[in-house]
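[audit] Reproducing an earlier prediction to check determinism. Same input, same settings, fresh worker. If the tokens differ from the archived copy the diff job will pick it up downstream; this log only records the rerun itself.
[audit] input (205 residues):
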Amino acid sequence: MTSSDATDDPATTTTGPVGRRCFGDGDPLYERYHDEEWGVPVHGERELFERMTLEAFQSGLSWITILRRREGFREAFAGFDPAVVAGYDEHDVERLMTDTGIIRNRAKITAAVANAQALLDLHDRGLGLDELFWSAAPLAGTRPRPRTFADVPASTAESAALAKELKRQGFRFIGPTTAYAAMQACGIVDDHLADCPVALARTVG
């Protein structure tokens, strides 16, 4: 999810009035994602591979478009098992290009397969996606919680460094903006607006 999704949602304003979610109001699927997933820490190779892949497919689209096809993506990409996806060949790519349950973009599909292969190569070198992603976490307390989505950056120095390292490790289709969206999705950063009910609950907690 990128900050622009908030302004696309007619039930959401960029100022995030007290008592309303900073995005997602009015759509039960989006509300659950906002309340239960966005900004919550995610660990695990398969889980992070899924978030990274979905964020890459989201590029140029609204997040709700991806969210509504999430189960289709999971079926198409074998539950985001990198060992299975890494073995996809041209026949699989052509099969996915006819799959109406996902976004049928050849460049993004082939990038997902290449990224699964890069992830296995990473494991062969004794490294992991969890380690790479969480190395990009900013120091706690270095940025105040945003009050409007105008305060939320599209990318940061940390996301640029993460994107550069992922590219160095053989990953594709994940620049600084996509990397930052993945960091938000995985709770590496928490960009819920200051007066969002989720942010208020976490402050109290």
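[audit] rerun output stored. Observation attached for the diff report: Residues 7-18 have pLDDT under 50 and may be disordered.
[audit] end
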